[in-house]
Design brief:
heterodimer; A: mainly beta; Rieske Iron-sulfur Protein; three-stranded antiparallel beta sheet; 1 helix; 10 strands; 3% helix; B: alpha/beta; FAD/NAD(P)-binding domain; five-stranded parallel beta sheet; 21% strand; metal ion binding (chain B); flavin adenine dinucleotide binding (chain B); assimilatory sulfite reductase (ferredoxin) (chain B)
């Protein structure tokens, strides 16, 4: 993992239709946890940092309860792929694909994210 | 029809009957058994487990219906009193006589009581039968101090029993060390340190000289050979056993110089119609064996000879043993004392941990034997390897796992002919056959099919490893171990980082990964419970710990269905001043929160947005409130009734006790939430018997109940101890809670835990009341450290700008509230506006 001093001036960015949108300093993210970000159109996105230092972004809305809480779930990995578990009823969503691991019919939106 | 008479129905006698049945002899012969004790054969090896709650019935060695099925006549409580070899008849105490064609003596042994003045006084016992145990238990009710004469295997068993009965216990041993027969000097001193550390007096190199008695003729003390004196209300002689050969002597059979009926390699005595097996016999090698495994072999040898089958011979036996004495593993096998020419020792000793391991090897590298004290896990692997050159160097075999030693030697390393169960002489190959050919997949099936594991039980773990892998006991997809095992790993190795636990102890495929939502909070809870003991920061949001917490712990509040949080300040014992009540009301009013009184005698404030939590808590902390840990798997509340202070029925001050307990255990992280209550009299208004630990006042103090639960599967709590003083009550709860935290599964309430753990309530009582595992000092120390290290999580969070920064709805718009957390009105308060969540979702519903 990158050392903290080098992280301070790095920004987390999400790709929106209009281009890369800066969200926050990388230093505000904790490995294994998420934060919620508000996009210009009012959309809520959950942004996560994994142990390897990769940033992931998915919709913040938990489709099972309708609550905007996925950013407050715990990050884990299954078969080497990172997921977030909803803090309400614990369904898991793959961070790379948005696929729900506990209900094959449910997928949540995914955003491309980078650090730059 | 020929008649076989068996005198003696102990473990060896029963094994002999089974061997006869296996060989079809019971179908053609009449079999008569005379048993002195009032109950059929029972497991004498595990006699002491009676004190762990095993009933005499559970100790029975006789399968239900065995005697009936094989037409065996068993007379219990009717010992043989005479044998006439001329007329071939046996007479029993009842006057019954039986003519025999073949007589088998399995009369066992009697405890040796040295000729010590006072040995017949009231309060002197031996330790041999269930009846002895019952008598000791009865007498111990009015005793406080006990002396055990004998520091061998039986003596330590007896000492463990006395300690379990709550007696101040001393062991007197004539030899210079404990267990002199089995272990060497190094092993003896490791054993001594550990046992002395449990609070038992150990007096080696001294014998009993005289038993002192009071005017009534009851034991009052013991004078030792060095003229020192020990106080004693009770004395147990466990100084060895002698063969019971009196019947044989009386009928003129040849007996050995030092006792024991002389037999040949077929276990036949000087009279070819009479056999002797087990502890009453002197085997063909001139030795008398006091262990069950050789006895079983003799039983089978005699059965073979009687059945006329190919002659099995008994020429002597391996004296290997593995025991758990006073909670300490002790094992010795092969040439434990290194008597072979040119043999070499490899020794590992760690006095701090009370571990001593010695292997004896030949210059060729062949393993000859060994002694293991304090950690005998390797016994079941090492004993079968005796006589071979092990696949690993001997020093690697004694090093603890993880300290330079490669992963423990697996059962794969054993050859098929290695004897796994030495009690029944069952090889690895035979067990694998049972698995492959008889489709045995569980331990009980293997036991039934091969008898392996039904003797001393030391090989059971190894048998388990030979079985095909079945149900995975692991905590989750990341860890192959249970929560209790993980607790031990973290405690012993003092690991304070989740990633280190995962990378070093996770399943291979999970190492280096992210972990999961199951094990992260579980590990966080274990680290928090152990924080002071392992040198971790007890603050749950400190460092890496923050990333492991469920959202409730992460934000120190309870998430509700619309993503808002509820806030519960601690109100110890349910007692609150009007001023504080007003503050709660003002905070709720100013932040527009919904208020409700909880079942735990406190007030829950609902509807706070995550960004409001610090401001709400700043007001509460300022007024003297602390976190109520309603969000944590931790102590919630200790309810109380008003008690003696106000109530005309009350007999104790239940409110004060509830407050004391709540303040003592606040913040304690556990496998699940903990609830408690204190009632001031037997009317039980605080409902203490539905709590994890509940206290009810009595005229003399307090009764402690444990394992109660309300909820989905209500359970009435069990009485753990009665009439306790304040200090005794607190000490017992300290131990109980720490033992629960140590051994429970993840999210397992005390009610389920108490039902699940082996031995149930009796076992827990033994551990926390009688300190049967010698754990109590450690459990109490852990709780003291918790109490000393307690800090209010909310007060601490409010002083740290870094930690406060996470309390925002949006990382890129810290001042903006979450527009989806809205409320509508109902009965003059707020409730979540759920419609908002369903309809105005900018992203629409789930993609299908």
């Amino acid at each position: 993992m990158t050392l903290a001093p080098e992280r301070t001036d790095l920004r987390v960015q999400l790709r929106l239709p209009g281009g890369w949108f800066p969200v926050c300093d990388l230093a505000l993210l904790t490995p294994g946890r998420g934060v919620a970000a508000l996009l210009p159109d009012g959309t809520q996105v959950a942004v996560f940092l994994d142990r390897a230092g990769t940033v992931h972004a998915v919709a913040n809305r938990d489709p099972f309860t309708g609550a905007y809480v996925l950013s407050r779930g715990l990050v884990g990995s299954a078969d080497g792929r990172p997921f977030v578990a909803s803090p309400l009823l614990k369904q898991r969503f793959e961070l790379e694909t948005g696929r729900c691991l506990d209900d094959a019919e449910v997928t949540i939106p995914v955003y491309a994210a980078r650090v730059g | 029809m020929q008649t076989i008479v068996l005198i003696g129905h102990g473990m060896v006698g029963q094994r002999f009957l089974e061997a006869l049945a296996d060989r079809g002899v019971t179908e053609s012969a009449r079999v008569v058994v005379l048993c002195e004790e009032p109950r059929p054969a029972y497991d004498r090896v595990h006699l002491t487990s009676y004190f762990d709650g095993t009933s005499p019935e559970e100790l029975s060695m006789v399968e239900d219906g065995f005697m009936e099925r094989h037409g065996i006549e068993l007379y219990v409580g009717d010992p043989a009193t005479g044998v006439d070899r001329e007329t071939r008849t046996v007479t029993a105490r009842s006057g019954r006589t039986f003519a025999y064609d073949t007589l088998v003596l399995a009369t066992g042994s009697y405890p040796f009581v040295p000729p010590c003045p006072g040995k017949d006084a009231e309060g002197v016992f031996v330790y041999r039968t269930i009846d002895d145990l019952l008598a000791i238990e009865e007498y111990a009710r009015n005793a406080t101090t006990g002396v055990v004469v004998g520091g061998g295997l039986l003596g330590l068993e007896a000492a463990g029993a006395l300690k379990g009965l709550g007696l101040d216990t001393h062991i007197v041993e004539f030899a210079p060390r404990l267990m002199a027969v089995q272990v060497d000097e190094g092993g003896g001193s490791a054993l001594r340190r550990t046992i002395a550390g449990m609070g038992l007096g150990v007096h080696t190199g001294r014998g009993g000289k005289e038993i002192r008695t009071d005017e009534g003729g009851a034991v009052s003390g013991m004078l030792l050979t060095d003229d020192s004196e020990l106080p004693a209300d009770l004395v147990v002689f466990a100084a060895g056993i002698r063969p019971r050969d009196d019947l044989a002597r009386a009928t003129g059979l040849t007996v050995g110089e030092r006792g024991g009926i002389v037999v040949d390699t077929a276990c036949r005595t000087s009279d070819p119609a009479v056999y002797a097996i087990g502890e009453c016999a002197q085997a063909a090698d001139g030795r008398v064996y006091g262990l069950v495994a050789p006895g079983y072999e003799m039983a089978q040898t005699a059965a073979d000879a009687i059945a006329g089958e190919a002659a099995r011979e008994f020429t002597g036996a391996d004296m290997s043993t593995k025991l758990k004495l006073l909670g300490v593993d002790v094992a010795s096998f092969g040439d434990a004392h290194g008597t072979a020419d040119g043999c070499l020792d490899v020794v590992y000793a760690d006095s701090r941990a009370g571990v001593y391991k010695k292997l004896v090897v030949a210059p060729s590298g062949e393993l000859l034997g060994g002694v293991l004290v304090g950690d005998a896990d390797a016994y079941s692997m090492l004993r079968p390897l005796t006589g071979t050159v092990p696949p690993l160097a001997p020093e690697q075999l004694v090093l603890p796992a993880g300290l330079g030693a490669p992963a423990a030697l697996g059962p794969d390393a054993l050859p098929a002919e290695a004897v796994v169960c030495s009690c029944h002489n069952v090889t690895k190959g035979r067990i694998l056959d049972a698995v492959a050919e008889h489709e045995c997949t569980t331990l009980p099936e293997i036991k039934k099919c091969t008898k392996a594991g039904t003797g001393c039980g030391s090989c059971v773990k190894l048998i388990g490893q030979l079985l095909p892998a079945t149900g995975d006991q692991g905590l989750c997809g990341c860890f192959p171990v249970t929560r209790a095992e993980l607790y031990e790993i973290i405690r012993v190795r003092r690991i304070t980082s989740y990633t280190r636990v995962l990378d070093e102890h996770g399943r291979p495929e999970a190492r280096g990964g992210e972990g999961c939502e199951v094990c992260k909070p579980a590990v966080a809870s274990i680290i928090a419970s152990l924080a002071p003991a392992i040198g971790a920061d007890g603050y749950v949001l400190g460092g890496e710990q923050a990333a492991l917490q469920d959202t409730n712990d992460h934000f120190l509040a309870n998430m509700q269905r619309n993503g808002s949080y509820s806030v519960v300040p601690r109100i110890p014992g349910g007692e609150v001043t009007p001023e504080k009540l007003i503050v709660i009301g003002e905070v709720a009013r100013d932040f527009g929160l919904y208020t409700k009184i909880t079942g735990g005698q406190r007030i829950d404030l609902f509807g706070a947005r995550v960004d409001q939590l610090p401001a709400i808590w700043a007001r509460l902390v300022d007024a003297g409130f602390e976190s109520g840990h309603a969000y944590g798997k931790a102590l919630r509340t200790v309810k109380s009734c008003v008690g003696r202070t106000w109530c005309r029925y009350g007999v104790q001050d239940s409110v004060r006790m509830a407050i004391d307990l709540e303040l003592r255990y606040r913040g304690l992280r556990a496998p699940h939430k903990l609830k408690s209550a204190v009632s001031g009299c037997a009317r039980e208004c605080a409902e203490a018997q539905s709590k994890d630990f509940g206290v009810i006042a009595t005229a003399n103090g307090w009764n402690l109940y444990v394992g109660g639960n309300g909820g989905m599967t209500p359970r009435h709590a069990d009485l753990l101890a009665q009439d306790l003083s304040d200090a005794e009550l607190v000490r017992l709860i300290d131990r109980f809670l720490m033992f629960y935290i140590r051994t429970a599964d993840r999210l397992e309430r005390t009610s389920v835990w108490l039902e699940r753990i082996e031995g149930g309530l009796d076992h827990v009582r033994d551990v926390v009341v009688h300190d049967s595992l010698g754990l109590c000092d450690e459990l109490e120390a852990l709780m003291r450290a918790h109490v000393a290290g307690y800090r209010d999580e909310w007060a601490e969070t409010l002083t740290d700008p870094d930690r406060l920064r996470r309390f925002v709805s949006f990382v890129n718009a810290p001042g903006t509230p979450d527009p989806t957390v809205r409320f509508v009105s109902e009965r003059e308060q707020i409730k979540p506006d759920l419609a908002l969540l369903q309809i105005t979702s900018p992203e629409g519903t789930a993609v299908r």
